[in-house]
Design goal:
Elements (H helix, E strand, L loop, with lengths): L9 H18 L7 E2 L6 E2 L1 E5 L2 E4 L3 H7 L4 E2 L6 E2 L1 H4 L3 H17 L4 E3 L5 E3 L17
Length: about 140
Amino acid sequence: MDGGSGLVDIDSHKATLIVDIQDELRKIPTQSTNSTCLICTEEKRCIKFCCSSIICKQCFPNYFIYGDFKIKCLTCNQLVSPAKVFVTPEFIQSLVQLDETKTMTQNIDFQICTCGAFSINSTMHAKQRCNNCQRWL
């Protein structure tokens, strides 16, 4: 099966990101003075990531998770690149991989083997072989 990969399923990937977001938040710099969080409206040291989007570190994880692991400006609704907010290259790459996996699952030729490997059926033959477990599909 051409295009097979060892990607983790989307739910497991999201669960890993939820755990990792707490470590990542410790590394993100905040503003030097207290600001009003746009979500909880409390005066705290917040993260500013676009126009006037200011969110405290306590509100950010829920905002991020319910925003489908994307950062959208609360003022102009523009999508913000993960590299503009997050510090760790591994975390940024993990977000990019999640986005690519979600995009791939929307492809009409997308297949999941029983071993969990993802692939795109690029040969258009009815019978395909998984590159991961060598099983015929």
